Amino acid sequence: MPGEQRNAPRTRREVLAAAARALSEQGPNISLDAVAKEAGVSKGGLLHHFRTKQALIVGLIEEWFDHYDTTVESLLEPEDTPGRWTRAHIRATFVPDDLWSHPSVVTALLGVPELQQRLDVAATRWRQQTDSDGLHPQRADLISRALDGVTLADLLWRGQESDEERDRTRDLLLKLTEQTGPFV
Question: What is the structure's pLDDT at 27?
Answer without folding.
Answer: 78
